[in-house]
Design brief:
The protein is α/β, with parallel strands linked by helices. It is built from eleven helices and 16 strands.
Length: 386
């Protein structure tokens, strides 16, 4: 839904009702991930996509019906379903799509959610999609960074404001709401979206209720060190993949906004000092392109002791061996050194900055989804992993 927030909020602001279809579960080679959405306005305008084209027509019709009827529907499309096959889901996958009516009356929190997403504040939306009780009931969970647009929800322990709050109810009582709140905040921390199952009182060992939790976590960070031409290409690729990109270099003549227009921020600082002051998590990508021991060795000392999910460094194999020796002398362990991906990127034969950026992007995608990195023509089985 993140991709279509702007147009649907305009409809919402205007008081229009619309049908919102969201992918909530996928199986096998499904074309879109959970959270992908399509909306159909009162005058028939459609925005977004749930299948990359396979079942768009059928979902459009269903979203129009739900918008008019006001009744939410959970629909499955896949090759095992005759009707789904007839509308064209021939990729071998199965998708569950939840379609709900939305307006300012049925979803009063939508404006606040949009404001939080624009401000990079974490928020999750939990919706009952199946089971006894209130299908379509919704609860909004604001993450630890605060409520809508930085608002505070009043005192917590009497000294500090409580920046974690929720609104709405899933309809089965406080226990279910509290269980979903806990799980949703954990999913927000990891940037996860998906279905969780509960009993009517929030029992995690039961599965009568299916609750779809859509996380609107801030985008993961990509920290690019070294203001060189390769960094400009990597910054462009990082933005394309959805990262919040920072380029950092100690040399002000090179670390300029003009040279890196695609970066979200350009910082002039010693790389190791800048990194030491940042909040790094398991979704963070660190690309060390400095190619100079006086910069990259102190930087990697810091980087390899963070929880960053990816740490790559540019350089030849000879440079890599020299770098490892220096890092061992600095006291890093073999387990810490094993986290370093150097030379950076997949073996694509890349030469230019743009080709090298593609090789780095390819490695990030491979690690995210568990691909082999081999040509698809030489593999068998499922195309989409995870």
């Amino acid at each position: 839904m993140r991709d279509i927030l702007d147009p649907i909020v305009k409809w919402w602001d205007a008081g229009e009702a619309f049908g919102l279809a969201t992918v909530v579960r996928t199986f096998s080679s499904a074309p879109r991930e959970p959270g992908a959405a399509m909306a159909v306005s009162a005058d028939g305008e459609a925005v977004g996509s749930v299948s990359g084209g396979c079942v768009e027509g059928a979902v459009y019709e269903l979203a129009s019906e739900v918008r008019d009827s006001g009744q939410a529907v959970l629909q499955t499309y896949g090759v095992s379903d005759d009707d789904a096959f007839a509308v064209g889901l021939t990729c071998g996958g199965i998708i569950d799509i939840f379609v709900e009516p939305v307006s300012s009356q049925t979803f009063p929190e939508l404006g606040d959610i949009a404001a939080a997403v624009r401000a990079d504040e974490p928020v999750a939306v939990a919706t009952v999609i199946d089971g006894p009780g209130q299908v379509g009931a919704r609860r909004v969970i604001w993450g630890p960074a605060g409520g809508p647009a930085g608002q505070e929800d009043g005192p917590g322990d009497g000294c500090q404001p409580d920046l974690r709050r929720s609104s709405g109810t899933l309809g089965s009582g406080d226990r279910l709401d509290q269980a979903v709140d806990d799980d949703a905040r954990g999913m927000l921390a990891q940037g996860l979206t998906g279905v969780r199952r509960y009993g009517p009182d929030g029992e995690r060992r039961r599965d009568e209720l299916s609750v779809f939790v859509q996380s609107f976590a801030p985008p993961p960070r990509m920290l690019v060190f070294g203001a060189i031409d390769f960094a400009a290409a990597v910054a462009r690729a990082g933005k394309f993949l959805g990262y919040r990109v920072t380029v950092c270099d100690a040399r002000p003549v090179f670390a300029t906004r003009r040279r890196f227009p695609d970066a979200d921020e350009v910082v002039t600082d010693w790389p190791h000092r800048y990194l030491a002051g940042q909040n790094v998590d398991a979704r963070t990508v660190i690309c060390v392109l400095t190619h100079d021991p006086k910069f990259d060795v102190p930087l990697l000392e810091v980087a390899l002791r963070t929880p960053a999910g990816y740490i790559g460094a540019m350089g030849s194999r000879r440079t890599h061996e020299d770098r490892l020796a220096r890092l061992r002398d600095a006291g890093l362990t073999e387990d810490e050194l094993a986290r370093l991906r150097s030379p950076i990127g997949l073996d694509l034969g890349a030469r230019t900055p743009e080709e090298t950026a593609v090789a780095i992007a390819a490695e990030l995608i491979q690690l995210r989804w568990g691909g082999s990195g081999r040509p698809l023509t030489t593999t068998t089985g499922r195309i989409h992993h995870g």
